[in-house]
Specification:
CATH class of chain B: Alpha Beta
Number of domains of chain B: 1
CATH topology of chain B: Alpha-Beta Plaits
Number of strands of chain B: 6
Strand order of the largest sheet of chain B: 2-5-1-6
Shape of chain A: globular
Number of helices of chain A: 16
Number of domains of chain A: 1
Distance between the termini of chain B: 8 Å
Order of helices and strands of chain A: HHHHHHHEEHHHHHHHHH
Largest interface: A-B, 17 and 8 residues
Low-confidence stretches of chain B: none
CATH superfamily of chain A: Ammonium transporter AmtB like domains
Shape of chain B: elongated
CATH architecture of chain B: 2-Layer Sandwich
Radius of gyration of chain B: 17 Å
Structural class of chain A: mainly alpha
Oligomer: heterodimer
CATH architecture of chain A: Orthogonal Bundle
Distance between the termini of chain A: 44 Å
Structural class of chain B: alpha+beta
Helix content of chain A: 55-70%
Amino acid sequence: MKLWSKPLTSLLKTASVLAVLALVSTASAQEAAVAAASAPATPSPIDPSSLSSLRIGLDTVWVLVAAMLVFWMNAGFALVESGLCRSKNAVNILSKNFIVFALSTISFYVIGWGLMFGDGNGFFGTSGLFFVSGADNSPALGSAYAAMNPFSTATYEGVYSAINWTPVPLWAKFFFQLVFAGTCATIVSGAVAERIKFLAFIVFSLILVAFIYPIGGHMIWGGGYLSANNFRDFAGSTVVHSAGGWAALAGIIVLGPRIGKFKDGQVNPIPGHNMTSAALGVLVLWLGWFGFNPGSTMAAMDGAAISHILVNTNMGGAFGAITATITAWIVMKKPDFSMTLNGCLAGLVAITAPCAFVSVTSGCFIGAIAGVLVVFSVLFFDKIKIDDPVGALSVHLVNGIFGTLALGFFYNNDIATSVAALPTGLTPFAQTMTQLKGVLLVAAIVLPSSLAAWYLVKGVFGGIRVSAEEETEGLDIGEHGNEAYPDFTPTHK
Amino acid sequence: MKLIIAIIKPFKLEEVKESLSSIGIEGMTVTEVKGFGRQKGHTEIYRGSEYTVDFLPKVKIEIVVTDDLVAKTVDAIVKAAKTGKIGDGKVFVLALEEAVRIRTDERGDAAV
């Protein structure tokens, strides 16, 4: 008792002093109120800087909350991937999905952000490269965007001018973009599951987020070549999803299929071990997408724009789920639940680029087409002996490309102006051609560099695939020495 | 003493247990197993590829009884586990050499 009686006594003393002060100040405030009530009321001018702070604060809250929703998608990926793979690999898949965000944080912080958003040339940044340390006076806005925060006269001065249009502080911009980079990296983990060496995945992920992802991103969001030529991708069907898809495809090509997947010209199914996990995962991703797409406004004031984007996002997922179910029902005789799940994700990926450039009706069509596409894509990749355990290529690569093109096909210049504030003035046909050029350019950059990265890792570490014995026994034991579902509790002497 | 092994359909477990209870058998060990006899498996489809699942879920019950109770026990199991449809399962009777109750060190029939 004696030990804390001293601080307790001083606390009581301080409290009583404060109480007296409060009493005194309330008394004088009441006097002032009486005085004011008797004088004619003149409204005191509102300080613009406080309105500016309010604006910036509101935008920052929106950006950070949306970013947290996108971060939460890592949980969704972990649940989906581990659910659709075998239990003997569960720990390994969870480890990959968990650590990949930490790795992305490192790569993006060290150099990724700088390459992607630093002022530079048409393909990558050359200023403010390392540790997000370039000169920057965010939340000051670029002069073209002063109308976004009319309460502030500060203009942007710094080296991250490609992203000077959003009235939030630099770290908010960084964190929001980081969670997108993390999403790209985690796409790869599903495609290479059940046979990749843990270390190989770690090293490749570091390379992907440090160099490959930012270059694609710089061309499209970092003020680079594609954005300067009317290519549009609102929230990342190309930047995030097809880039991740190309990297995943490269990994699958270098790795090869799982043992027993293709035998004597037959495709053998390898069912997942937990459909509950997979289902919950897709729901988590669906929710996370409500941060992914609407959050890409990176500003809170235009509620109509945010709402349009969010509803479009939902339409993509909902219609994708439905048409995928119907397609699977017809083509595969029964509504395979994993196809329903993939269909929902496909729709969400497909709407990611066009959500702010197309009408909600178009969004329904885009989601619907994506759902059909993903089913046939899964069958296609199996047919050409590309083993994709969770359908990552069908969801992210194929529908990332489709969504990017759909932006052109369903392009609406009025909506591009009012919702995205990024109109091009092109006809849908011309926009589609522009989108196609972008798809091809990104493919030409991301696929070869990913292949090079995988081969580099393979060369340096003597292989990226586990041994046949380890693959058969399960990567949980081989890579981690853990079991996901131990049968017998360990005994101790 | 005899060891009786019964492979039955999983949903029949409760019925078999009660049937055995009613003739005075109170102890048993139960395992979830997979197997097949003449009952064919079924075809499943996963992401576009068909495959047959031959092994079907069953439940294995192991009971040890004294010789005088063998016939009653087997009858009780068969009656409770029967559905008349293929896949009902089988009962095996094995001669048992020794049994020990761990708590009291009793051996032989006294341990059963």
